[in-house]
Amino acid sequence: MELELNAHEVRVLGCLLEKELATPEYYPLSLNALVNACNQKTNRLPVLSLSAEAVTAALRSLREKQLVVQSEAGRVAKYWQSFGKQYNLVNRESALLSLLLLRGPQTPGELRSRAENMCPIETLDQVLESLSGMAESGLVTQLPRQPGQKEQRYAHLLAGAPEERRDPGAGTQEQPTVVVRRVGNERIEALEEKVARLELELEQLRREFLALKELLGD
After folding, report:
1. What is the pLDDT of residues 186-215, one digit of tens each?
2. Domains in the chain, start-ordered, CATH in brackets?
3. From CA 55, how far away is CA 32, in angstroms rounded?
4. pLDDT at residue 76 tops 60
5. What contacts 96, CB < 8 A, 6 or more positions away?
6. 3-class SS at 89?
7. pLDDT 10s digits, 86-111
8. Residues whose CB is less than 8 angstroms from the CB of residue 105 and which lie 6 or more positions away in sequence, other chains included
9. Helix (H) or strand (E) holding 112
10. Alpha carbon of 91 to those of 69, 171, 177: distances in Å?
C-alpha cells in the first residue's frame, strides 16, 4: 500500500485504535493520556519511552496524512483516529489491526485472546475472516510459517513490508516450554492491563478535579 508510517506513527495510531474500543469513556485522548498509552509496559512490543515532543510530531504527521483529527473544543486538545473510517473498518478489524500495530506479528489465536477487552470474538474463523478482508485491502499480510510453529502469523503493512525475524533455535522440542511460559505471561499481562486502565482513570479524575478547582476559583 502507498501509506508508510514510521515507528512512532505506528505506535500512536495503534494506541488511538486500541483506546477507542478498550476505554471509550476516556476517548478521544489528550496528549498526556496518549503519551501514557504509547509508553505502556503492557501489550506493547517493543516497550517505548516516547517524549511528549515525539508524540506531538507523530500526531502532526498523522494529521497531515488525514489519519488523525484534533479537537480544540475543550480546554485541552483531544485526538482521535480517522483511519478506521477512511478504510471502512468494523470494530473487530480495528481491534485486530491495533494489536498488530502495538505488538507486531501474531497468530490468529493470539489475536483472538488479546482482542477480548476491545471487541470479543467468538470464533477463530471470525479472526481469519477479518484478517483475510484486511489482507485484500493491503493492510495486513500472512507471514511464512516459522520452524516448529503450527499457526502462521500475520503482520500489518502500514510501515512497509515486515522484516521477518526467525529464531534459529526454535524447534519442536522447545515448544512445550514456550507454551508454559506464555500462559504465565498472559496472566501477568491481564493484571498489568488492569493497572494501566486504573492509571488512565486516575489521570481523568485528576484533570476533572483541576478543572473543578479552577471553576471554583481556588
Report:
1. 556 556 666 666 766 776 677 677 767 767
2. 7-216 (1.10.10.10)
3. 10
4. yes
5. 111, 115, 127, 130, 131, 134
6. coil
7. 999 999 999 999 999 999 999 999 99
8. 143, 153, 154, 155, 162
9. helix 108-114
10. 19, 36, 34
